[in-house]
């Protein structure tokens, strides 16, 4: 039984389930930001904990197949080395899990922060969707909106 589960969770299947698995969290953040379910499943540590467990499993799985993690440090040497790393599926799935976790964390932070300022849920639809798709741009759009509601520019809040 355990061997069947292990052979089912290939890197391709994990990629599929990661993409499908973050959608409910994002839907909760976008459509139900004031609900109790959002506090439990959206802006808590729960989704990040789940993604961290998946990340640890991936590291273990990749380590078993002899992946040399020291080559990951080559990404700082130039674009050609980064391109070579992204051609490796093992590095790519680790990066993608990292990307999903960071964007989800940022989406949770946006929801938590905009509720402090009483910003309209309808207005927050766009920054949250943009954060889901293009993380840094969504945070920037939220920051611009936040300036008008907070009536101040704060670079470290």
Structure description:
It is a single chain. This protein is 73% helix and 0% strand. It is an all-alpha fold. It has one domain. α2 (11-31) packs antiparallel against α7 (125-133). The termini are far apart.
Short description:
With 157 residues, the protein is mainly alpha-helical. The protein contains eight helices and no strands. The protein is globular and about 55 Å long.
Chain-wise SSE layout:
Blueprint: H1 2-8, H2 11-31, H3 36-41, H4 46-64, H5 79-86, H6 89-117, H7 125-133, H8 135-150
Helix pairs in contact: 2-4, 2-6, 2-7, 4-6, 6-7, 6-8, 7-8
Order of helices and strands: HHHHHHHH
- Structural domains: how many: 1
How would a textbook summarize the main sheet? none
β-sheet strand percentage:
under 5%
Radius of gyration: 18 Å
- Oligomeric state, counting identical vs distinct chains: single chain
Helical residue percent band? over 70%
- The rough form would be described as globular
Q: Compute the number of helices.
A: 8
Low-confidence stretches: none
Main features:
single chain; 157 residues; mainly alpha; 73% helix; 0% strand
